[in-house]
Structures are given as C-alpha cells and as structure tokens.
Amino acid sequence: MEKDLFESSAQKELSSQPLAYRMRPRTLDEYIGQQHIIGPGKLLRRAIQADRLSSVIFYGPPGTGKTTLASVIANTTRSAFATMNAVLSGVKELRYEIDEAKRRLELYSKRTILFVDEVHRWNKSQQDALLPWVENGTIIFIGATTENPFFEVNAALVSRSRIFQLKSLTDEDLFCVAHQAVEDEERGYGKLDVKFEPGALEHLVNVSRGDARSLLNALELAVVTSEKIQKIGRKDFVLITRDAAEQSIQEKAVLYDKEGDYHFDVISAFIKSIRGSDPDAALYWLAKMVNAGEDPRFIFRRMLISACEDIGLADPYAIVVVEADASAYERIGLPEGQFQLTHSALYLATAPKSNSALGYFDALSAVKNESASAEVPNHLRDASRDAKGFGHGEGYKYPHAYKDHWVAQNYLPTSLKEKVFYHVGSIGYEQKISEEVARRREVQLESAADDEFVENLTYSPGDRQRDQWVVRATSQRSQMLEAIRKQVFDSMKFARSDRTLVLNAGLGLLVWEAFRRTPEGLVVAQVRSREQYEAIEHFNKDLDEVQKVRVVKNVEEVQSIEEGL
Predict the structure, then answer these.
(1) Which CA distances in Å does 43 have to 25, 35, 47, 304, 501?
(2) Cβ-Cβ contacts under 8 Å for 451 (sequence gap 6 or more)
C-alpha cells in the first residue's frame, strides 16, 4: 500500500511537468537522432554502455539533445551523477560538488560525473577551478554548450575532453519525437488519442527547425487548447487542426547569436551564395541576417571584401557600387537602408567573377620562400645615388618614352623572371585585357632572356658613344619582336583549324600567337633547352588537356603526333 502511495505521488509530480521534460529519453534506445555519435557501434555509445566514459563536451544548437544525453548517462552509470548550470552556479557551488566527489572517492571508491550545462557561461577562472580535479580523476566532466568550445571553453579543459558535435534534428527525427509523445500513455498523450488535421503536424515540425524542445512545447500547447471530440459508440479523441498548430507556434525564436557560430555560418552562406552567383540564395541569407538584427555595417564590410576577392577585375566597379551603398546607408539607416543592402548583394551575385587577386598570395609565398639571391634587378635600382660608380639603374627603359607607354623589360628578380602570379580571368573586364596581357608577357619573356644587367663590382671611365649605341639597340628590341611576330602571322594568313609547328620555339613568342589564331587547330612547339620547355609548360598547365600546346624536343616526335591524330 505504501509503495502504491509513493508511485501515485511520483506519477502525479511527473504529470505536472512540461511535456518536453516528461518525454526526455531514459535510455539510449529511446534517444532519437544524433546517430553519427550514438548509433550502433559508435565510440560514445560503447563508452556509455560499458560505463567507461571519460570527460566529454557536447556542442550543438538548442534543442538537439545535449542535456537529454547527459540524463541518459545519469540513468545508466554506476557513478554518482551531479548536475550544475553555469548560469545559476559559481565557484562556491563547484567547490561543494568537488568536495563531495572527493569524499565519495575516498570513502566508497565511487567516481563522480559532473555535468555542467551552458559551460561557456563560466569565465576563465571558473573553468580553471575544474582543471585539477579533471586531471587527477576526481571527477569526470561532461559539458554542454551552444558555442564553439574551441573558442569559448578553456583550452586546457578542451584538451582533456572529447568533443562531440550534435546537429539539428532532421524532420524525420522530429516526426518520431512527436509520434513518441502522442503514443506514450505514461508520459505523453497516449490515453487521449491525439489526431492531426492534414498539414498540422507538418507545420509544427517545419517551424521547429530541428529543435525537439520547441516542437514538444508547441505540441503540448496545441493539445491542451484543443477540444475533445466525442463520437457515439467510439473513443473520444483530440483533433489538432492546422489553425491550432499555427497558433501554438506563432513565431519561432530566431536561432541567431551575433557572437556565436551560427552568426559566422550565416555570413559564410551569404558570401558563398554571392561567389556562386545565386541571387536568390544571397537574398535569403541577407534577409536572415537583417531579421536577426545583424549590424548592416558588418554585412557591408564582408561585401566590400567579396567585391575584390570574388568579383575583382572581372568588374572593377563592383567595389565602387558597394562603397557607394555603404555610404548611402550611413545617411539613410534602417528600415530604408535595406534597399542599399539588397542593391549591393544583387550586384555582386550577378556580376562576372574573378579571383585573380589571389595571385598576391602566390607572390607573398614566393617572397617568404625566396633565396638571398632574389635581389632588385640592377636596372630597377635607385639611380640617384651611385649610378656612375656601380651602374645602378643602368639599362632601365622609361615606358612613357615608347609607343603605347609600354616596353618589354624584366621587373622581377632574375630567379623569378618566368614566374606568373596574375592569372587573368576570361570574363568581364578581364576578357578585354587578357589578350594584351598575354602578348606583352610573351614579348617580355623573350626580350628579357638576353637582357640582364649585372651590377658593376669595379669602375672605369665609360665610352659615351658605345653606351648610346647599346641603349638604342636594347630599347628597340621589344618593338622589333612585336613587329616580327605581327608580320609573320599576317603574311601566313592562318585558318582557325590549321595545325602549326613552331621550330626552335624559344620561350613562346610565336607559339602563343599561333595558339590564339588557331583555336580549333593544333600547335606543336619544338624546343631546344630545358628552359624553353619549362617556359611553355608553365603556361600550358592552365589549359585543358585537349587545348594544350604539344611540346617536343625533335622533329621525329612530331611524326608520332601526326600518326596519333
């Protein structure tokens, strides 16, 4: 009789708790979702079943089952289980739990598992207080956090724990949670025979967005506010209509913390949508940020970066548009300022794309890895101090003195003279300049091959007449090369499908012009040195296999190519 009395009292107390609390799984078999960490054979499941758990941190969005998983562990372990909430507890409460854990270990050789919910709410000194006792095994620590533990939890504590990331529940998981609640006669609504109007349960699941707690709270409200329907000769049931479902979950709290991971995930999705030229997705993620109260200045800042990183010289005006919109927003503010945000987002999402600015990082890598021999070429040095004695600046060609304000000369250190950092794009503004950039590179490479100036290590009086002749000869070299190339190709009248063999291809002056003039044909380049081979292959690597110039060392190899066609 006494047992029945206690059971009745416990049952009454349980029924007064919220549905989300009542339906918390008691065993791993009742736990829904997160199969990637507690599915059959998974490490965490094996550790819980064997009661051999080490310190762990559960990390994930609200309502994904972090606290629930801790309660399952509490139900299955033979260790003492203590619970703390970092929002409500401090060092004083922590010291009490540690003292109790030491007492249990000394008197009964019983371990203690300490679960700290919202552990990221503790400051560094509070988290530090845990460390010695985790290290010496007095307590086994379980932390739960919605924030990235690598940023918000003490690094020393993280290094001593396994981290398990919980994900938002799928719609399938949420349907299972709902059916479990309406079918369970002891803890749920199994005795009420709950039925759903078409679309009602789907609405609850959809608006819950992976949060089981939100779903169960809404389901509870829908059940208690819906009337029982009586049928003569049949069991009464509760019908949840679509309208009742909508009213029970009118507005979902925005899952967006401007200091948390989700904040960075959404801005990442926004920028990647711009990069992927998807204006619809860009508008969706933009709206999500604005609706959550994100600072528009932060959004504009990221769009300014994207304008150079993702659009770049394909549309040089992209950064001008974003900067103008950002400036206009400062004068307009919200809500009208949303038009400026939208204008910039759509402009970037629909603009031609180029990431050629990333060439800077190739140059930076070259700078970090360069040898001591990568000095400033002699002709580029400052001639104002010691030009007469050591020849600094000798051989420099002043571009504005030449046609089109350009002349071929080497501007890179000798060890990098064939290096290409800027890979010009093929659309937008870069499409207009790509051919000219390529032609100048080819002439520059060919011209610079014999155009190196060495710093004088000795000094003697010069021959003025001889020096003037050298300057005239070298300054005309690039113009001569361009003229020869133009004359050769204009006189030969290439067809687009011609096959071309370039003998003694050099560094590619004629090869790449032939490549441009015969896009449907074939170009074969015969080289005489390793340097020539590497120069042509350097540009070849950016082409599709079928487009590549065929590089051979002798004429016999050309015959084998002919036979293979």
Answers:
(1) 20, 11, 6, 45, 63
(2) 395, 409, 410, 474, 477
Q: What is the pTM of this model?
A: 0.52
Strand-by-strand arrangement of the 228-231 sheet: 194-196, 234-240, 228-231
Q: How far apart are CA 381 and CA 437, in angstroms?
A: 25
d(CA 412, CA 370): 12
34-165 maps to which CATH number? 3.40.50.300
For Cα atoms 483, 488, 489, give the angle at the middle one, nearest 5 degrees: 105
The answer to whether 304 touches 415, Cβ cutoff 8 Å, is no
What's the CA gap between 28 and 22, in Å, rounded? 16
What architecture is the 171-248 domain classified under in CATH? Orthogonal Bundle (1.10)
**Topology at the third CATH level for domain 261-353:** Zinc Finger, Delta Prime; domain 3 (1.20.272)
365: phi then psi, degrees, rounded to nearest 5: -65, -40
Size of the chain, expressed as the number of residues it contains: 565
Token reading at 295: 């600072």
Per-residue pLDDT of the chain (565 residues), as tens digits, is 444 543 445 555 556 688 988 999 999 999 999 999 999 989 999 999 999 999 999 998 888 899 999 999 999 999 999 999 998 888 889 999 999 999 999 998 899 999 999 999 888 888 888 899 999 889 999 999 988 898 888 888 999 899 999 988 999 999 999 999 999 988 899 888 899 988 889 889 888 888 899 899 999 998 888 877 756 556 678 888 888 888 887 654 455 555 566 778 889 999 999 999 999 999 999 998 888 778 889 999 999 999 999 998 889 999 999 999 999 998 888 788 899 999 999 999 999 998 888 888 877 887 777 765 567 777 777 766 654 544 556 667 777 766 777 766 777 777 776 677 777 777 777 777 767 777 677 666 666 555 554 444 444 455 555 555 444 544 556 666 677 777 777 777 777 777 888 887 777 777 778 888 888 788 888 888 888 887 788 777 777 777 788 888 876 776 666 655 5
Pairwise CA distance, residues 305 & 401, whole Å? 37
By DSSP bridging, strand 234-240 and strand 228-231 are antiparallel
Collect all residues with Cβ–Cβ distance below 8 Å to 64 and sequence separation of at least 6: 33, 34, 166, 167, 168, 169, 210, 211, 212
Cβ neighbours around 448 below 10 Å, total: 21
Phi, psi of 418 (to 5 degrees): -100, 5
Cβ atoms < 10 Å from Cβ of 271? 20
Where are the chain's structural domains?
34-165, 171-248, 261-353, 494-565
Q: Residue 335, preceding bond cis, omega within 30 degrees?
A: yes
Token code pair at residue 245: 């479902």
